[in-house]
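Section 5.1 Outputs to date
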Amino acid sequence: MHSESDLPWEQTQTLVNTLVFKHTGKYLSDIEIEVLQGAWEGKSYEEIAEQLFRSVSYINKDIGYRLWKKLSEALGEEVTKKSFRQALKREWQRQFAPKAASTPTSNSAIALEFPEGSVALDSPFYVERSPIEADCYKEILKPGSLIRLRGPRKMGKTSLLHRVLAYAAQQNYKVVRMNLRKAEKLVFTDLNKFLRWFCLDVSRQLNLEPKLDDYWDEEIGSKVSCTGYFQAYLLEQLDTNLVITLDEIDTVFNYPDIAEDFLALLREWHEEAMIEASWRKLRLVIAHSTEVYISLNIHQSPFNVGLPLRLPPFNPQQVQRLTQLHGLTWTVEETQPLTAMVGGHPYLIRLALYHLARQDVTLGQLLQDAPTPAGVYSDHLRRCLGNLNQQPELASALKQVVTAPSSVQLTSVAVYQLDSMGLVHLHGNQVTPSCELYRQYFSTHLA
């Protein structure tokens, strides 16, 4: 069995996948991860094979051989099932171990990254929120699967989507990335225009010649035409599975007439996989910031089927992991003041640690200045305030939340909007500020 001095499994998996991806451009396959975990747990090949319902020869001479070969090449030294733990521990200490206790290092082995946009696939600063990633990887292998990712903005949805697509591509699936927020407003003029744009963009990303006019029939309607185009043309052209991620899908909530039909279409395609072989190739991943605040028929909504996953804030152990990656040797207890100030919000945690690692500011000064124009969060807070000032009723609702001595109740739409911005926490029908930073800042800056 593994010893207490070994790296934790989650850390081991992240390190190995990062090393192998940097060397090969691909992550480990699902079964390679299973064998790696079995070896990490000290199991014999016989035990691993029995657990996975495979032959010992296949696990040892096929999967095991490839796994240790990849890891040896990525580490630059020969490793085996018996020696990989110590080799990984040395690599982690070389790359990630902090240099001095409780203070930032001036020459950390990892180049610091300013937290902006999604976290790159090869970035060491991506911290998994187990078991969410593993659940996504397993679900995407299932025919006709649908995964629903929900979380406020800047919580890591897009970073996770990229990893799901990278894993799917490693399985030789075709992948399509779609961010509905990037679509021009003209696209949302009517359902027919939107669905034609949708089909064109998928065709383009698959490097297939668009043939909409061959399948589009205004007499039978755009929904049937779109379905026929996918089934008879796009899916028929593929000799493998297709994964489509739809980021910022709540963009369509602003266009109820389009949203009702488009979302029902996604639900229909998911259900068709149960009876039509061609639809089993399609797997959908949809990401959104809010609950659905438009009226949808319960039997047509994609938001009550598939695998639902909500991205939570970082827990104390995940925050501590990030501090280590930034060259700090904080204990879990030492992370608590920062976590309490920003509520474990991944982006806000990373922004603070970036400046602390650069020694731009001390932790005490950072916390003191956090809700002020002199703090590291000033740009972020001003953007949030600007959005709120354009929606006076929403600003008034948040003012009520941050100035109340206890939780309050708001209208459904206000709750959805504030939750999508990550500004509040929901407790049943009750609402509170999502963190102390927002309580302090908005209680003084909202008119």
